[in-house]
Design brief:
The chain has three helices and five strands. The chain is an alpha+beta fold.
C-alpha cells in the first residue's frame, strides 16, 4: 500500500489574485479619489491664493470619542479614542465677529483655550471657509487623496492586464 500526502485545497478568498473585474473597480475607486483630490486641491489653492489671514483665538476645545476599526495580525479590532477639535473666534475684515469649528481634529490636545492662531478665510464666506492656517499641512488631504488614487489606479490596472496563472493538472 502506498501513501501519498495531498495538499489541502485552499479556498480562501485571500489566496486568489485580483482579477480583471476587481481591477476595474479599483481603477474606478482610484479615479474617484483623484477627482476628490482635484476638487479639494482646487479649494485649498483658492483659499491659499485668495484667502485673508487674520489672528484668531481658540474659544473652546471640544472632545469627542471616535471609534474606528484597525487590522492587526489579520484580526480586526475596534478602537475608541478621544479626538480634539477647536472652536475659533476671529473678527473678519468687515469687523464682524465669526466663530467656527475647525475641520481638522487632533489625537492629543495641541492647543488650549485662549491660544492665538492664524485663521485663513475667503472674504465672500468667512464662516463657511475659515480654517486654522497650518501652512504646508493645508495640502495634506488633497495630497493623500491623490497618492491613494494613483496607487489604486496603478494596482487596478495591473490586475486588469495581468494574465491569470494556469494550474497544471
Amino acid at each position: 500500500m502506498r501513501w501519498t500526502i495531498r495538499k489541502p485545497h485552499n479556498h480562501s478568498v485571500y489566496s486568489k489574485p485580483a482579477g480583471p473585474i476587481s481591477g476595474f473597480f479599483m481603477v474606478l475607486l482610484g479615479l474617484a479619489l483623484l477627482a476628490g483630490a482635484g476638487w479639494v486641491g482646487k479649494n485649498t489653492y483658492e483659499l491659499m491664493a485668495r484667502g485673508i489671514r487674520v489672528e484668531g483665538k481658540i474659544s473652546d476645545v471640544l472632545e469627542s470619542l471616535e471609534t474606528s476599526t484597525r487590522n492587526r495580525n489579520g484580526y480586526s479590532e475596534r478602537v475608541t479614542e478621544t479626538r480634539y477639535r477647536y472652536m475659533v473666534s476671529f473678527r473678519d475684515k468687515n469687523g464682524v465677529d465669526v466663530t467656527f469649528k475647525d475641520i481638522m481634529s487632533d489625537s492629543h490636545p495641541t492647543r488650549q483655550k485662549g491660544d492665538v492662531v492664524t485663521v485663513l478665510y475667503l472674504e465672500k464666506d468667512a464662516k463657511g471657509s475659515a480654517v486654522i492656517d497650518r501652512g504646508a499641512m493645508n495640502w495634506l488631504l488633497p495630497g493623500a487623496l491623490g497618492v491613494f488614487g494613483f496607487f489604486a489606479i496603478f494596482g487596478g490596472g495591473f490586475a486588469m492586464v495581468r494574465k491569470p496563472a494556469t494550474v497544471a493538472a
